[in-house]
């Protein structure tokens, strides 16, 4: 006996699949985790190092739950940050890629879940930076995040790794709504086949639990331009904070020539316009000394970048920068 309500069609389920972003630094096993979830080799693990930050490839997956019901999920295998690419140019490219990614996710229903792939081992600066970029900056702390710890095939108990290492994540304020400790390789001659199957069941169960909460639970920015301003400002503040750290190690601050070169290279300003704008910025901080100098420098740059990205009104930028802070 039926209640007269037809189940959603295959096309309807595929179209309204919850979107999941999988990210992490190169070598963390993102593409291998995609294949682990899918049960087949969809993602090319050999190309995982290619592309710039926030480049992504999407895969439509169908998973079955304990009642043998099908669940459609769209996974975005996304390039994260690496220590070797920690530069202003990479962040500036990331702004454009972030806008493209969020636009696509908005168009297809928003983001339901973040999966952060982390290779078992110590927590590095790249681990922390990826968490900040995707969870705090890109998704504004609004999207649930799950950790998938990879490379645990040699652990006697994969889940035991989390028990021992969870305090380290708390120490660095890396919080998650769920986690899965896995191996994403079968090993030579299928030596890890049993742990691989266990890992597949674990990560699939976590994924289904986190994405089966109804269509209304996905997050997307309320307004695209406002989100872009927020993201651009946060990303570029990050750039200059890291530049400031390197400057402290060199025992010197950012020079006006470096600032001019940055404005020319990143925003295609003519040498005269870049020098004019850099001079206006510099004049306002001649009296700035001590720790407040770095904060003001970052704030001025972020104001400039956000205005340029979204309005392109150079005189409006000059006026904004000239206002007392």
Structure summary:
Helices cover 50% and strands 12% of the residues.
- Helical segment count: 11
Q: Order of strands in the sheet with the most strands?
A: 2-3-1-4-5-6
Domain module tally: 2
Name the CATH homologous superfamily of the largest domain: P-loop containing nucleotide triphosphate hydrolases
Strand content: 5-15%
Q: What CATH architecture label of the largest domain applies?
A: 3-Layer(aba) Sandwich
Topology as H/E string?
HEHEEHEHEHEHHHHHH
Largest sheet: 6 strands, mixed
Instruction: Characterize the quaternary organization of these chains.
Output: single chain
Overall average pLDDT: 76
The level-1 CATH class of the largest domain: Alpha Beta
Shape: globular
The Rg value, from CA coordinates, equals 23 Å
As residue ranges, the low-confidence spans are 247-253, 284-302, 304-325
**Distance N to C terminus:** 70 Å
Could you characterize what this model shows?
- The chain is α/β, with parallel strands linked by helices.
- The chain has two domains: 19-212, Rossmann fold (3-Layer(aba) Sandwich), CATH 3.40.50.300; 224-245 and 253-307, no CATH class.
- The protein contains eleven helices and six strands.
- It has helices at residues 10-15, 30-38, 88-107, 125-138, 158-171, 193-211, 224-250, 256-267, 271-283, 292-310, 314-322, and strands at residues 19-23, 56-64, 70-78, 113-119, 145-150, 178-181.
- It has a six-stranded mixed beta sheet, with helices on both faces.
- A hairpin with a 5-residue loop joins β2 and β3.
- α3 runs antiparallel to α7 (224-250), α7 (224-250) runs antiparallel to α10 (292-310) and α8 (256-267) packs across α9.
- The longest helix is centred in the last third of the chain and has 27 residues, at 224-250.
- It starts with 9 loop residues before the first helix and ends with a helix.
């Amino acid at each position: 006996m039926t209640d007269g309500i037809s189940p959603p069609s295959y096309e309807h389920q595929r179209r309204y699949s919850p979107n999941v972003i999988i990210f992490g630094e190169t070598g963390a096993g993102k593409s291998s985790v995609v294949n682990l979830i899918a049960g087949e080799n969809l993602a090319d693990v050999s190309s995982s190092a290619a592309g710039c930050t926030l480049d992504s490839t999407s895969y439509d997956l169908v998973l079955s739950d304990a009642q043998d019901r099908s669940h459609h999920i769209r996974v975005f295998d996304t390039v994260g940050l690496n220590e070797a690419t920690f530069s202003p140019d990479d962040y500036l490219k990331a702004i454009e890629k972030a806008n493209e990614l969020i636009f696509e996710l908005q168009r297809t229903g928003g983001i339901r879940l973040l999966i952060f792939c982390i290779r078992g081992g110590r927590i590095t600066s790249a681990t922390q930076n990826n968490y900040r970029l995707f969870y705090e900056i890109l998704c504004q702390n609004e999207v649930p995040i799950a950790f998938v710890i990879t490379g645990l095939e040699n652990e006697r108990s994969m889940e035991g790794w989390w028990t021992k290492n969870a305090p380290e994540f708390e120490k660095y304020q890396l919080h998650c709504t769920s986690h899965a400790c896995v191996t994403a390789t079968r090993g030579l001659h299928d030596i890890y086949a049993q742990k691989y199957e266990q890992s597949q069941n674990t990560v699939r169960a976590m994924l289904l639990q986190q994405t089966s909460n109804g269509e209304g639970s996905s997050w997307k920015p309320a307004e695209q331009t406002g989100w872009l301003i927020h993201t651009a400002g946060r990303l570029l503040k990050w750039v200059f904070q890291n530049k400031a750290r390197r400057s402290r190690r060199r025992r010197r601050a950012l020079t006006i020539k470096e600032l001019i070169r940055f404005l020319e290279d990143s925003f295609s300003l003519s040498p005269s316009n870049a020098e004019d704008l850099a001079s206006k910025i510099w004049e306002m901080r001649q009296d700035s000394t001590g720790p407040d100098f770095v904060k003001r420098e970052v704030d001025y740059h972020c104001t400039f970048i956000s205005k340029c990205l979204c309005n392109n009104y150079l005189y409006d930028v000059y006026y904004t920068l000239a206002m007392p802070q």
